[in-house]
Amino acid sequence: MLNAETLKPAGGRQIIREGKYIGVMGNWCMGYAKVNPAVLPKSLAYNFLLFCVRNPKPCPVLDVTEVGSPEPRRIAPGADIRYDIPEYKIIMKGEVENE
Question: Cβ-count burial of 54 within 10 angstroms (0-12 exposed, 13-18 middle, 19+ buried)?
Fold first, then answer.
């Protein structure tokens, strides 16, 4: 039986990558930071980063990937945000377009 609370982040990402879990992860990997990644076009990224730097409590920046790279190398080497997130929303112009 899976004990999500004691999982290490790499183990949790592997379970998600294999398609074995979709859902909320609030009780996963206790003691590790949980993030809400934001993937933006390059044209918007600087302004968003500036907003986060000026508002560090509600919007902490833990990593910034290289343009086109899905790997957050600083906080999760080997991770791939395209496959290691169980659910996400695609928001365009303030509206949810897809999940």
Answer: exposed
**What's the predicted TM-score (pTM) here?**
0.75
Q: From first to last of its 99 residues, what are the pLDDT tens digits of the chain?
A: 678 889 999 999 999 999 898 888 888 899 998 888 888 889 999 999 999 999 999 999 999 999 999 999 999 999 999 999 888 888 888 899 988
Q: Domain containing 40: what range?
A: 1-99
What is the tally of structural domains in the chain? 1
